[in-house]
Amino acid sequence: IIAVSPKITEISSDISINEGGNVSLTCIATGRPDPTITWRHISPKAVGFISEDEYLEITGITREQSGEYECSASNDVSAPVVQRVKVTVNYPPYISDAKSTGVPVGQKGILLCEASAVPSANFQWYKDDKRLAEGQKGLKVENKAFFSRLTFFNVSEQDYGNYTCVASNQLGNTNASMILYGE
């Protein structure tokens, strides 16, 4: 019998899936003797193999299960061969932090809205029911992947009140209210 090193001949492509969906990954390998195939999740929390054959099925996937999955094909002929598949799990935004802030008149004030989402959230700010536009006098809006910062350069009495941050992506939106108040 001629020994042949393992070789992965077919593996699933990287995929993007909405949270709650089902994922099916495949890894086909050749070699002599027939290689043993295992799947594992590359993650700090993952322990050991999550599948000991060519197929990995995940039903009702959660955001914690996103990341890279590694297929390993091994026989005793040579070192195992490994390939990875990236699984992106999309989920609607949730706002993790939004605090009210007290600022004296004439000082700089900041309202911060932190949100987690995949794809990243788009942010909008409202005062009462009026949308705040970028470049409005005395205001600056900074949007990043995981947060939005509303800065007041010189707080006046008129700035005090109720503000709402809206975070949205293709899967949904959420909002949080906070108050800018006088010290």
Automatic annotation (TrEMBL):
<keyword id="KW-0393">Immunoglobulin domain</keyword>
<keyword id="KW-1015">Disulfide bond</keyword>
<dbReference type="InterPro" id="IPR003599">
    <property type="entry name" value="Ig_sub"/>
</dbReference>
<dbReference type="Pfam" id="PF00047">
    <property type="entry name" value="ig"/>
</dbReference>
<feature type="domain" description="Ig-like">
    <location>
        <begin position="6"/>
        <end position="88"/>
    </location>
</feature>
<dbReference type="InterPro" id="IPR003598">
    <property type="entry name" value="Ig_sub2"/>
</dbReference>
<dbReference type="InterPro" id="IPR050876">
    <property type="entry name" value="IgLON_domain"/>
</dbReference>
<dbReference type="InterPro" id="IPR013783">
    <property type="entry name" value="Ig-like_fold"/>
</dbReference>
<dbReference type="GO" id="GO:0007155">
    <property type="term" value="P:cell adhesion"/>
</dbReference>
<dbReference type="Pfam" id="PF13927">
    <property type="entry name" value="Ig_3"/>
</dbReference>
<keyword id="KW-0449">Lipoprotein</keyword>
<keyword id="KW-0472">Membrane</keyword>
<keyword id="KW-0130">Cell adhesion</keyword>
<keyword id="KW-0732">Signal</keyword>
<dbReference type="InterPro" id="IPR007110">
    <property type="entry name" value="Ig-like_dom"/>
</dbReference>
<comment type="similarity">
    <text>Belongs to the immunoglobulin superfamily. IgLON family.</text>
</comment>
<protein>
    <submittedName>
        <fullName>CEPU1 protein</fullName>
    </submittedName>
</protein>
<dbReference type="GO" id="GO:0098552">
    <property type="term" value="C:side of membrane"/>
</dbReference>
<dbReference type="GO" id="GO:0005886">
    <property type="term" value="C:plasma membrane"/>
</dbReference>
<keyword id="KW-0325">Glycoprotein</keyword>
<feature type="domain" description="Ig-like">
    <location>
        <begin position="92"/>
        <end position="181"/>
    </location>
</feature>
<dbReference type="InterPro" id="IPR013151">
    <property type="entry name" value="Immunoglobulin_dom"/>
</dbReference>
<keyword id="KW-0336">GPI-anchor</keyword>
<keyword id="KW-1003">Cell membrane</keyword>
<keyword id="KW-0677">Repeat</keyword>
<dbReference type="InterPro" id="IPR036179">
    <property type="entry name" value="Ig-like_dom_sf"/>
</dbReference>
